[in-house]
Write a structure and sequence with these properties.
The protein is mainly alpha-helical. The chain folds into two domains: about 1-120, no CATH class; about 145-230, no CATH class. The chain has helices at about 1-5, 10-15, 20-30, 35-55, 60-90, 145-155, 160-170, 175-185, 190-200, 220-230; strands at about 95-105, 110-120. The protein is rod-shaped, with a radius of gyration of 42 Å.
Length: about 230
């Protein structure tokens, strides 16, 4: 009769109608349900609607209507009790073991449902995030700064004076490989270029392009020396 009057309610009743024993277990163990609270609230609303359907069904006899209303009311009370406990308790959450639930046909034709409730650990402590090393990026000199430095070097007649200007200017400045190449080109002798390279290697912002500086030298021996300087040898 219940299947005809309340289609779709069988599964809900299997989960919710545990009888006095289930209600007593929930009261004694104070275990809130693992089912999501929105789903339980929806179950309460559905049970309320079902009670209204039973009350309004003219095909039901008085005795059958009374029995169904009692069972639906018990189910709704159980769900509401679980909801209240779920809202007030923290820590252990229960697992509803409904998959292997046993349905036994009793002598009076009623279905007996066994629902196993088992506590499972709640979420553990959250590990703090690992500290992230801050990467400090420096900006190379601007084009106008580079042009000014090149002009200042060219105002000097001797290479020692040019390197002195370069040393002073690069105390607080950084340069790209392309900018370093242009500065090296302002010096005529390979020894002066190697000296300037030793000064500039720690101010390069894109060391991955250091191979482009080998072209500033003509002889293989000078190229090898430049490579050693840039490799930190």
């Amino acid at each position: 009769m219940m299947h005809r009057v309340l289609p779709g309610m069988v599964l809900l009743l299997v989960l919710c109608v545990g009888g006095p024993a289930l209600a007593q277990r929930a009261e004694n163990k104070k275990i809130p349900p693992q089912l999501p609270m929105p789903l339980l609230k929806q179950a309460v609303e559905t049970l309320q609607k079902a009670e209204g359907m039973v009350s309004a069904d003219p095909k039901l006899g008085k005795k059958e209507r009374k029995r169904l209303l009692r069972e639906l009311g018990d189910a709704r009370s159980n769900v509401e009790a679980f909801l209240e406990q779920a809202a007030s308790q923290k820590g252990m959450l229960p697992a509803w073991d409904c998959c292997p639930c046993r349905e036994n046909q009793g002598r009076d034709g009623k279905v007996e449902v066994t629902v196993n409730i088992q506590g499972v650990p709640g979420p553990g402590p959250v590990e703090p995030p690992m500290p992230v090393e801050e990467v400090i990026k420096v900006a190379p000199m601007t084009q106008s700064q580079l042009d000014g430095l090149v002009a200042a070097m060219n105002e000097q007649s001797f290479s020692d004076d040019k390197i002195a200007v370069l040393t002073e200017a690069m105390k607080e400045a950084y340069a790209t490989v392309a900018q370093v190449r242009k500065l090296l080109d302002q010096l005529s002798f390979p020894d002066d270029k190697l000296q300037a390279l030793r000064l500039l290697k720690g101010r390069i912002v894109d060391p991955e392009n250091k191979f482009q500086l080998y072209g500033a030298f003509v002889h293989s021996s000078d190229k090898d020396e430049a490579k050693k300087i840039l490799d930190g040898n």
